[in-house]
Amino acid sequence: MTSFRWVLLVLVIPLIANQSMAAEPVKPAASNEELIQMPSQDLLNGLLAALKKQLGLTAGQIDALTKNTNSYQQKLVGTPEEQIADRLNALIVESGIEGAEVINRHDPLFWLYRARFGLDNPPAPAQIPVWLTRRGQGWHVYLATLGTSASSGLKRGDEIEFVKGLPLNFDAQARKTLDVKVKSLSWDKPQNTALALQQKSVGQIFLDLTQSHRKVFVTGKTKTGVLPMPAIDLDLLRVDVEQALKQYQNTTDQLIVDLRGPYGGGGMTGLELFMDEKGKRVHYKKPLYILIDRYTSGGRELLAGLLQRHAGAVLVGEATAGRTAPVELTELEPGKFILITEHKTKTIETAPINPDRPVAESLMFAAGQDKILESALAIISKK
Length: 383
Known about the structure:
Elements: E1 5-10, H1 41-55, H2 59-75, H3 81-94, E2 100-104, H4 108-116, E3 127-135, E4 138-144, H5 146-152, E5 159-162, E6 177-183, E7 191-196, H6 202-212, E8 215-219, E9 222-228, H7 235-251, E10 254-258, E11 288-292, H8 298-310, E12 314-317, E13 327-333, E14 337-342, E15 357-358, H9 371-381
Parallel strand pairs: 9-10, 10-11, 11-12, 12-15
Antiparallel strand pairs: 1-3, 2-14, 3-4, 4-5, 5-6, 6-7, 8-9, 13-14
Helix pairs in contact: 1-2, 2-3, 6-7
């Protein structure tokens, strides 16, 4: 498991503490995070059964997993709910198992995967349209929608500090805004600001995200479009992207398609948006430049490789994650925990895809900068 997580800031109602399995209630932590006494045995049994069924474990792995599961039952006592998934993932790693990850409702990918599997009902809890990357205990802005940027001044690389120590999972449903502190550089003095909360489906949030970051850069007589594609396998986005490609065909000279970021490893590539079954270009037939990074995975990773190979697209950025295998979702506890497993087959490429023009993107951005996008624009300007 990587130590860095890229997420869409999600504010959700905490799980009510399960008091039925302990003699005395556990006092709430000082950070206002509610603790659960012990996850249900059904959760651990479900995890064990799903891993055995979906990954074809060896006898040795099954023995290690069973033994570790018994020991983790006690380790999980008193663990904050949003940290349970991390503990279960540690259990998976200690058992020598690869290609599986547990996530809970405090992780935005929980809501995204539910949407991909047709479970986006009800909508994800109150959300702020800001993508963040976590480094240690700090949160830094990766992307912010235009509306959020205009209202709060947030930009790429800004560090977020939460006021009054509120955790990410406090009850946001009754609130309209979240008061936070923001600083652009580590030595800056934090400035107070307010972020508006929203209640939208995951599909609508991604649609707002991609639409707000579409741009057209003009250099002399040349026009270059930028089209973010964070999640290809949501119908709402596919229809919108097709319309955008047709529009860019008439208004730009080349197109930059942004496939960066860990927005889940959905299996659909969206290749039909760019090429038909006979390999002919559709919708957008001009030069393509594809932005990729270490978090590009799943269908978007395959799309980058296919466009590079069959459409002459130039890949700019970092080597991809190398995780193109289809995934399966198992809901261990409805509305609380899900298990994502990869199905690796001989017909699926799993090696990272290397860029034609490598660009080292730092996890700690200079505020407001985007080195990979800037490099792509520089390459185009020198044509």
